[in-house]
Amino acid sequence: MPLYFFISGIFFKSYEDFLGFLLRKINKLLIPFLFFYLSSFILMFLFSRLIPGLFHLPLRIEELLYIFQSHELIRYNPPIWFLIALFNCNILFYLVHLLRQNHLCLMFITVLAIGVIGFSLGKYGIPLPYYLDVAMTAMPFYVCGFWIRRYNFFLYPHHRFDKSIPLIAAVCVIVMYFTATNLGMRTNWYPGNIFQTYLAGFCGIIFIMVIGKSFRSIPFVSYIGRYSVVTLGIHGPLSHFISSFVGRYIHQSEWSSVIIFLLLIVICRLVTPAFLKIFPHFVAQKSLIKI
């Protein structure tokens, strides 16, 4: 999860003004969220009524209100909480980044303060609606993604730092081994202290970035990444269907998890072109609200 916020920060642009920025983020994040939030609920609600017992979770209409209540799990489509948190992160950083021109140090101090407050809210069990506290905790990861564009050894090939990739990767693994804990970013819950959480998060980001740089481009993965909002939005509901099917024939959890993962990836890749063609305004490919 820290990596996802980091990568989003790499692509931050302030555009023409706050209103234009806000409308773009509504088109790119909130509209896809609402599309997958409502459509997946309706689909699974209908199937659960047509085929009782198909899912292990009874769906109720009141679950549509869960996003207004703390960090309740969106059980019929858990992953899409990220779109709301990322929207909040974008808006927060837009306001903070206005300090960059004349008060750069103050900008970084503000980012750190926001991160500390968000982390502390989680430690003291004080949730904020719409995952706002999650966005606050994720802010340092997001801002580092934004700032890393200035230092191209991460992003461009044939840099002198490339020779150090094995050493960098090894150091990151060692640090993560001693510091990493089970992150709960959706719930803003972290069992470790603040230094562990951010140190392990940044080491994980660096590790994946340098290893990914060694591979450069993998067409299948690149396609999934380019249209990741589709995979994000559909793999949660799909997993309920696929798990029910696979569970009938395979009872070993390790093998069933591998098969479910492979089926999800293949299906997401196959149906993505249809979503792009039929629902371009709802999967962040075209603007539903004109700017």
Please describe what this structure looks like.
By secondary structure, this protein is mainly α. 64% of the residues lie in helices and 0% in strands. It contains 10 helices and no strands. The chain has helices at residues 2-10, 18-50, 81-97, 104-123, 132-148, 165-179, 194-215, 219-226, 228-247, 253-278. Helix 6 packs antiparallel against helix 7 (194-215).
In short:
With 291 residues, the chain is mainly alpha-helical. The protein has helices spanning 2-10, 18-50, 81-97, 104-123, 132-148, 165-179, 194-215, 219-226, 228-247, 253-278. The longest helix is centred in the N-terminal third of the chain and has 33 residues, at 18-50.
Low-confidence stretches: none
Please give the radius of gyration in angstroms. Answer: 20 Å
Spatial shape: globular
The domain tally reads 1
The DSSP helix count reads: 10
**Roughly what fraction of the amino acids lie in strands?**
under 5%
Major β-sheet, in short?
none
Task: Give the H and E element order.
Answer: HHHHHHHHHH
